[in-house]
Every structure is written in C-alpha cells, then in structure tokens.
Amino acid sequence: MIASVPSLNDAEPVWSAPQEAVCIHIQRQELVYLAIVSQEIPPLEVLELLEGVVQALTEYVGHLSELTVKENFTTVYQLLSEMVDSGIVVTTDTAVLRGLVPVPNLVNRVIENVSGIGIGPERRPNVNTSSTPWRARGIRHSTNEFFVDIVERIDAIVGTSGSVVSFDVSGDVSCKSKLTGMPEMIMVLNRPEIMDDVVFHPCVRRRAWDSERTIGFVPPDGQFKLASFHVAMEASPRSLPLHVRAQASRSESTHTIEITIDAGQCNGRPIEKLGVRVPLPQQAYNIGVQCKTGTHKVTNARPPQVEWTAKSMRHGDRGLRLSIQYHMRGNDVADRGLRAAGGTPPAEQQGVAAAFVDFEVAGYSASSIKVDALRLLRESYKPYKGVRYVTRAGSFQVRF
Amino acid sequence: MAEYLSKAVAFAQDAARLSLRFSEGLVDNALEFGLDTPGSFYDNAEFRLWQVRRDLSAGSDKEKLAAMKRLLAVVARGLDASEHFADVVKNVASGSLEVRRLVYIYLLRYAEQEQDLALLSVNTFQRDLADSNQVIRAMALRVMSSIRVPAIGPIVMLAVRRLSADPSPHVRRAAALAVPKLLRLDPELRDELAAAVGAMLGEESPLAVGAVIRAFRAACPGEYGPVHQHFRRWCAILPDLDEWGQIELVKLLVAYARTQFVRPGRSAHALDADHLLLLDATRPLLHSRNSAVVMVAVSAYCHLAPPARLAAVAKPLVRLVRANRETGYVALASALHVARRQPAVFYPHVRSFFAAASDAPFARRLKMQVLAAIVADETAGAIGPEIATYAQSAQPDVSAGAVAVLLACAQRVRASSIDCFRSLLLLAADARPSVATAAMRAIRVLLLDGTIRDLHDRSMTLYDILCYLARTLDTSTADGARAHIFALVAEFAESKFGTLHALDVLRAGARSFGAEGEQAKMQLVELSARLLLAKHPDGGALVGEHSDKLAALHTYVQTLARYDVSFEVRDRARALRALCPLPGDEAHAEEMTHIGPLAGELLGSASSVAALAPTSSAGPGYTVGSLSLTMGRRMAGYEPLPDWPSAPPEPVDRGALPGTAAAKLASGAYGSQPVFIAGISGRSHAAGADYSTPRSIAGGGDDLDAFLNSEDKTVAWPHAASHRSLGLPATAVVFERPAPGLGSELSSSSGYSTDSEPSTSASEETSSDGGADSDEDAGGGIKAEVDGAESACSAPAASSSDSSDDEATPLVLGHLPGGSPSSSPAAAGYIGLGGSRNADSEHHSQPLIEDTSKYWQ
C-alpha cells in the first residue's frame, strides 16, 4: 500500500483508476499515501484523513520512511484502526490518539528490546472528554514557558521586466507551550485589522476575535499552530524584500539567462539563506555559470538545473548578478527547418520557464504584524514569554 | 523473623526467575532485533511461523506480542495467516492491552472466514462492555460491531442500545458509530436501529454528536422529521463540535434546509429566520483549519445562500487553492464550478488564479479554465497582460489554455474582441499543432457566433479574414487547424467570400488530400458536398458556370475518401454520398428528391453546432466539494441534494435556541475592489480591402487534371489577405497599451507594453507557389476514377512555402520607454494601493515581551 516513488508530480491527486475506483493520494517526503475510494465521498475529507495519518505517524514513529514504517508496522495498524472505523473517520486529533494508543517511548523501547520485559505497569488508556479536548488536566512543567513564532511567507510571481504580477503575504502563528495547569492566554496584535483571512486552531474563541480582535485561547500542551492568516491586499507592503529580475536572451547558439538581485529595505535586517534555482530545458548542455559572489552548483540530471546560494545581503549592497549560459542539443537544425516553414520558433523551454528564489529575513515581519501583548489568566505563576519573527520566500518565482 | 526470612527467600526466587528471563530474553531479542537489519522482521516474518502456535498458547506476554507481530506482518504482506485463527482467538482476553489490540486487528481480518471460531470471542467482548475504563468499553463495542458474522447481530444490537446511554461520551460515540456497521451486517435491524438512533439524537456532548448524526443519516436516510426539534440547538453547537462532527452535521442540515425552506430569491426576498440561522452558524466554519470543513461550509453557502451572500465563499476557496497541491486541485475544481455560475464572486481574486511556474499541469489547466470563466469587463485589465504571457509560453498546454481565455474574453469583453481575435490569428500560425488547432477552433467559434461579424470594424472584414485563413493553408501543418479552415470555408461559402474562393480551396485541398490528416479529410469531403448542395438564392447552383468542375472535384474527393485508410473518413464519405450522390448512384434517386432540398441545411446546421458546443460545459450540477464534481462523472453512492420545495412548507417548531447564540445577521456585502475597464482600442490601419470578385478560373473546364494543378493564381487572392492588412501586430500582445485606469504609478513600472517596432515582418504574401507538380504518387496509390487525373492528382500537399520570409519574431514583451522597473516593482499590478502604510515603528503600546530571537536556536 505504501511505496517509495521518486516523483508523482504530474499525476492528479484525485485520479481515476480502473473499475470505477478512484485513487486519492498525497506525497510527503519519499512516501506516497494512497486511499482507494469506490463511492462518493468528498475528496477533501480523504485528503485531510491522509494528512492526519501522516501527522499521527510522524508523532509516533518520527521520520517517516519505508524503513521506519516497516519497523513500526504494528503501531501503524493500531493507529489506523483507531482513526478509521469501517470507512468512517473517527478522529485525526493526535491529542486524542495519544490517549488511545501509547506513544512508543524510546527509552522503554530500548529497555524492552534489550531485556525482553517491559518496565513498569502498562498505562491504562484514557481519553479526555472535557470541554477542552486538546488539553488534558493536570499538566505540570517545572519551568513555565510560552514561545510564539510568527512566520510569514511571501508568494510572488515577478514578470519578465521585473514587474510584480502577483504578490501575496501569508503567515502562521506557531506556538510552543509549556505551561502548568489550565491557563488561559490572551494575545493582542498590533494591527489585527490587516489580517484578512484568519484560520484559528479550534482552541481559539472565535467570538472574542469577532468582537474585540483579540485571540483568547486555552493552549494545548507542546507545539501547535495557533493561527494562519493572509494579509489584505490593501495592507500588503509596497515593496518586496528582494527585487529580482530575470532576462533570457539568445544569440546564435548560446542561450543566456541573466538574473539580477537587489536587496530591499526589510528594516535594515539582512536577507539570509539567499538561493536561486533555475531549472533548464531538457536538452541544455555545456552549462556555464558566472557570478561574483556566492556558490553555485550545476546538477546535470535530466532536466538539468542550476542552484546558486549566498549567505546574506543587505539593503544598499551592490546588486548581485548571476549569468547562466548554455547550449541546446539538436535543436538548431530543426529550428531552421521550422523557420523556413514560416512557423514560430519551436518549444524552446520545455518545462519551467522561471527561476525560483528563496530567502529568509529573521526578525522582520513583512506585514508588520507584531505581538503587542500576551497575557496569562487563571494561573498565578509568571511564565517566560518569547516571540520571534521571520519572513521567508514561499513560492517566489521570476519569469524569464 | 521467620516472616522476614520467607520474604527474603521469595525475593531471591523472584530475582533468580527474573535473571533467567532476562538472559533468555536477551538472546531472543538479540536474534530478532539486534542482528537483523531494521525492517527485516517485517520482511522475514514468515520464516519462523512454526513458533507462533507455541508462543500464543503458552508464551509470556512478550512472546505473544512477538508472535502477533509476526502474524500481522504476514497478513500485511498479503499472505494467508488464517490457519492460526484458533490460537489467536484464545488471546482475546489477554492481560496486555497491546496484545489485545493486535489480536483484534487479526480477528477482524479473518472473522468472516472463521465464523464459528469468531463467536468464541464474543463472551470476552461482552465482559469488556462493562469494564470500568471508557476506552475499553468503546473498543470492545467497536471491535464487536466490526465482526462480520450475522449471527451476532442481535447481541451487538443489545450492546448498542445499552451503551448509547453510557455516561462517557467516548462510549456513546462508539455506540453511534456501530449503527452503520450493524445496518450493513443485517438490514433487518433497520427499524430497531432507527428507534435507537432516535433516542440518541438528544446527544449533548460535542464529542458524540457527529457520530450520532452519521448514524441517523445511515438509519433514516431522507428522513427530516426528527430534525425539526433539534435544528436550532444543532446550529448553536456547530462551532463546538470536532471537525469530523461538523462535516456530518452540515451535510445533514444542508439537505434538511433544501426540503424545509424556499429557494432564496435574487431579490431582497426575506429568508426564513432559521434559514439565516443556519447560514450564520456555518459561516465560522469557512475559517476552519480543516480543509474538508471549509469545503462543506462552502458547499452549504453555494447551495443555500442567496446570490448576494455568495461572495463569502471566495476567500476560503482561494485559500484552499493556495494550500498544498492536492487540496488546491480539489479546491480548483470547486472554484471552477462556482466561477461558471457566479463569476463575480472571484473578480477581486483574479490574481490568485494566475498560473505559476511551479504549478502542476492539472493545476495550470484548471486555473486557466477559471480565468476563462471569470474574464469580464472588470477583470480584463488584469487578465489581459497575463494571458499575453501565457500565449508566448513554451509549454503547449499553457498556450492552448490561453486560447480558451482569449476566446472567452473576445466573447464577453466587447471592447477587446478585435484584439483578442488578432492574437488568436497569430496563435493559429503557431508551430505546435495543439495550439494552432485550439486557436483555429476559437476563431471559428468567434466567426460563427457573430462576435466578430457584428463588430462592423472596417479594419477587418469577414472577407479579409477568410482570405487570410485560406492562405494559411499553405503553411499550416496542424491537422485540426486545417480541418477548421476547411469547415469555415464551407460555412461561409455563400457569403461574400464567394464560392469561387471556396472552390479553389477545395481544389487545393483535393490536391493534397493524400497528405491531409483524418480531421481535415473529413472536412474536405464535407466541403465538397456542401458546395455541391449550396443553392443560390434564385434557385440555381451557387457555383454557376463551374458546376462541372465542382462535380468532378466532388467525385474525385469522394473516391479518395472511399478508399481511405481511416474508418472515420470512409464512414463520413459514405454518409455524405447518400446525401448528395455521385453521378453513378441512381439507386436512391427517388429518396433524394425528398432529401435533396434539406440536405444542405442538414449539413450546415450539424457542423456549426459541433463547432460551437463548448468543450468545457458547465456540466450537471454536482454538489460542490463532492467527488463526482471533481471527477466530472456521477460516482456510485452519489446522492444529489433534494430540490427546493415549490411551495413554502408548513412552519414547524424547531426547538429553542440555547443561551447566548443569538442569530446575528452577518452582512454578505463584500468590499469589492475598484475595478477598471481596459481601454483597448482597435488598431488603426490602412490597406483597404480589394473587394473585386475573383477572376474566373483559367484553364479548360473539362480538364480537371490541369485544373487541380493549375497555378494558385487562378483566383485572384486580394492583397487584403496579407498579414499586415489584418492589422496583426508582429507580437502577440493582446493589450498593447496599459489601461488608462491604471494610473501613472503602474504604467511607470509595469512594463506591460510592446516595443512599438514597425512590423517589418509582415511580408507581402504574394501568391505562393504551392507544392511542385511532382508526379510521384504519394497519396497511397489510389487509382482515382477521374478521367485524366490518374496520378498527378495526389501530389504532395503544398506545405513548404518558400516565400514566407517572416522573421517569426519571438513574441517578446518589452519595456515601456522611460520606465524604471526597479523603482517600485512591488507596486506594479496592484489596484487601489492608495494610502501610505503605517511605519513599522508605530506601536500602540510598549510590547510586554522581549524579542528573544537569540533564545531560539
């Protein structure tokens, strides 16, 4: 049922199989998770279930690969039987599952495997049926901490001339909670009004958000995603952290792609982990890369691609320039023939005709959303609170 | 003291036993786990199966666990392990919960084969049903109800009834979940189950409501009476349910609402208060983190909300489209469904449907279909430049998708019709067959549905266009594109284009018949038949003096088609031969006197309809978010939503609304973005068309051979047919000027403009000399039964035109002179980015927490 497949990029996720069956599949890392459906069921329910299976397995097994799944196949079986009951999804919540199927504890497992006996009595399973199913009673931590991580993604398509075709800022508010008891948190943001389309964890009280624009919640224990948001277009920053332009040109037999990168303002923060990936056509060969800074790598797979990385860059630095030259195999002859026939030049760039840019700006929020206050109610201790901002490139592509 | 000693002895004995087991275990585990490579236990499970029986009967828990793992590994690998069923069943009451879980998995796998043995386990389950631990109770019921042995149906029924009143919601949920299973096992129990479910409907715990609803829908399908009294309470608790419960409840309530309320009118027709309550209760689900919940809420809005409130689904759908590729695919299918019915919903989100280079092919295809659905006056300004980019794309599917958008744009945005049409003409000359065919098809649609004909644009008359298209036959190599041209010529043979031109096209087509593709051959056969049947308004044959040549051509084409390799072509020829018989076919003369007058109309209507039928029809209205909608076909088990009642149903009591949940009227109004209309104006140009009628065909009327191979100059193709006179730009830019509404800020940096370079490429296409009159019989060696046309007729197609010195300019979008793209690229392309953004430093209050970036690794 589960097999390693290198790439399923072109297969539709909801795929019609023979005999009226439909295959619904997702690929996460090297594994493909496949559900076969023969009757009407909303495909998103199946996809959410598969996603839930991946999350639960990751929590129980750790890194998922063919090997780890084989090693823990009984855990996989037990989890699946708790998650789905004769075709009905029962739960995908890992907090609930943890109560039903014990998480294999690494220490226990080592002792068991070596000694052959389990130490300590088997824990009786239990589920939390309270009104806060995501948080059990009686959680204790020696140090009380609460961390907030605001990660923003910039999705952009930059046109040939450097103009921005589309541009989206979206973000996640992730938290890591280590708090004792049943605390209630209230988070106040500086500009909640620019959050255009907000999705909350079920623990957030939607009513408080609708009326006062504050986020009130009883946090689950451990790591969780409190909210994701999309920034309204009117509030989007007026400039990208990175100005990229790409130009493709062609002389007699050489194809050239020129990419220039200038750093934007970003509140004076450096742009880090800068990377550009340029997939080249199948028939490209003799690939040469020129750049003054950074390191580059040419992958000569089919299709070949050029990867270029640099450590960091600041606003005001000299713009970076990357130039890629390559030749095309066996195209010129056919080309001339077609030209003679009066046709347009043939499909030059089979595959992708864009460069993909990657970057990260730590301590910078593209939407300028900040956490103004984080209050703890109903518990007497004072926790340690921390917040961190980072802006990353999402799907940032430059056409040429 | 003695007591102390005996204790010590017992302790020593225990220690000895422990150490023995310890060392045994050590050896055993070293064998099993230590020395093998990871995962090999799973791969080699069947090698030590002989040991399983002993371990399961007499082993320790640890050994039993290993034995069960071994068995399950065998099962998982698809091998048969049913012979151990008896040994396994013995362990169903094992002290170790983990062993028990594995036993259950095995039991459910083989219970159907070993029914008698499976019954042995039932006692244990019944004991577990009274366990003090809620998880054990629920698990026992879950497993027991999953055993597919009809004999235990009544026992399970009893258990369901007892546990549906359990104090734990977890157990009550298991009881509800058992209902659909029990129903599948024994349909006879339906009435009993329906009664039990009816009692469960009052369920208060958010944990169990979803399962109860599921049970209700299984036991009482299509029954909505019991819903009345719970309706308001359910609306109120909807946000508190777990995600899977929300999905079930919304599905039920949507179906319920479709039977209980009246169809929401387009006008401000007052909705039932409960109808509004349901819409408002569903609204928060649009913001769920679970995409399936969002989709079911979107579906509820699509099928229940009045059109004015439908805008609420746009953002959630767009969010799902932006999510991962799998979710995006399903969301796009639903977005397309919505866009085809309510395009205005997506007007503010046009840019979210722009194809990105990282999109999978299926996502690109759907995105462009959405764009085609939502292109309108309001969105044309944004879509136009983007489509110009797609048209130049190196990926054929993108260019072909762009054609569909151009077609929709031409049809819907009248101001841009001409520009779109010009772009299509350029794309029709594309080297890639799929693109050329799609473009030619779009051209045909536009000409037939009157979009272009009605423009009265002096710059481009139908006559010019048809002449231009007929010319492209010299260069075009795509079968589909050629077929469309032949079809167009047939369709407009009676227009100003004239039968003489049509006749000449037929002549050229007949000459290259052997080299044509299947589609083109079929259209050629049809063309000849239609010309033959075409009647002049005054009654005579349309071709007039050339009717003898036409008849000869028709016979020739029919003969070639009759012996064609393609079944389709032979079939079409045969059908057409019945409509307009050859001189030799006298058998049906009598029938023909009746059919004859109608045949021409029959042919004409059939082919036009075929061309105009939309390739991407809206399709039957499947429920939004359903698998049937995604697959485009009705899946087994699909149940359409009930239709709205024609008359308002009797008012019923829908229970009380608990506590604070007051129905707020959420406004459905959507703050729409300012939109602008692209200022696209037709291109001015000169080149007056030459309307002179073509010269008469040279050559002897009786010599078809000579006629077929006669110079292409026989018909005077006017200069108007040349590239330039149609006002075709050298570049395929649809909207060559930034729209006036975009403002200076945009035009300085957008760069959506062309180099206004003079179109040197538009060569004066004088009559090109088609294929050399080679005498080689390349057409397949058919001995045509045409007098004097033995072999020369099937000369190769005239495809290699040498006169076309087009530069074939690569389609490039240039800069606008004076523009400095780096000045503010981010601002480009956005509408209404007015007002300065607050500086980051502007804080309302001092942050209470420190920035602890350094703390995090």
Q: State the major sheet of chain B.
A: none
Give the CATH superfamily of the largest domain in chain A: Mu homology domain, subdomain B
Indicate the mean pLDDT of chain A: 82
Radius of gyration of chain B: 38 Å
Which structural class fits the helix and strand makeup of chain B?
A: mainly alpha
Question: What is the count of β-strands of chain A?
Answer: 22
How many distinct helices of chain A? 7
The average pLDDT value of chain B, as a whole number, equals 73
Strand order of the largest sheet of chain A: 10-12-8-7-22-20-15-18-17
CATH fold-level name of the largest domain in chain A: Immunoglobulin-like
Distance between the termini of chain B: 60 Å
Q: Strand percentage of chain A, roughly?
A: 35-45%
**Greatest contact between two chains:** A-B, 134 and 150 residues
Region (Disordered) (chain B): 739-857
Biased composition (Low complexity) (chain B): 740-771, 789-802, 818-829
GO cellular component, one term (chain B): AP-3 adaptor complex
InterPro entries (chain B): AP_beta (IPR026739), ARM-like (IPR011989), ARM-type_fold (IPR016024), Clathrin/coatomer_adapt-like_N (IPR002553)
Notes on the structure:
The complex is a heterodimer of chains A (400) and B (857). Chain A folds into three domains: 3-115, Beta-Lactamase (2-Layer Sandwich); 145-237 and 364-399, Mu homology domain, subdomain B (Immunoglobulin-like); 242-362, Immunoglobulin-like (Sandwich). Chain A contains seven helices and 22 strands. Chain A has helices at residues 43-61, 66-71, 73-83, 94-100, 106-115, 206-212, 332-340; strands at residues 3-4, 14-16, 22-28, 31-37, 84-85, 88-89, 145-158, 164-178, 184-189, 199-200, 215-217, 222-230, 242-250, 254-263, 271-279, 284-291, 295-299, 305-313, 320-328, 354-362, 371-377, 384-399. In chain A, strands 10-12-8-7-22-20-15-18-17 form a nine-stranded mixed beta sheet, with no helix packed on it. In chain A, strands 1-4-3-2 form a four-stranded antiparallel beta sheet, with helices on one face. In chain A, helix 1 crosses helix 3 (73-83). The longest helix of chain A has 19 residues, at 43-61. In chain A, 42% of the residues are buried. Residues 1-6 and 332-349 of chain A have low confidence and may be disordered. Among the domains of chain B are: 1-28; 29-240, Alpha Horseshoe (Leucine-rich Repeat Variant), CATH 1.25.10.10; 423-614 and 676-732 and 772-805, no CATH class. Chain B is built from 34 helices and no strands. In chain B, helix 13 packs across helix 15 (243-260), helix 15 (243-260) runs parallel beside helix 17 and helix 19 packs parallel to helix 20. The longest helix of chain B has 33 residues, at 2-34. Chain B is elongated, with a radius of gyration of 38 Å. The two termini of chain B are 60 Å apart. The relative contact order of chain B is 0.06. Residues 660-701 and 730-857 of chain B have low confidence and may be disordered. At the A-B interface, strand 3, helix 1, helix 2, helix 3 and strand 6 of A face helix 1, helix 2, helix 4, helix 6 and helix 9 of B.
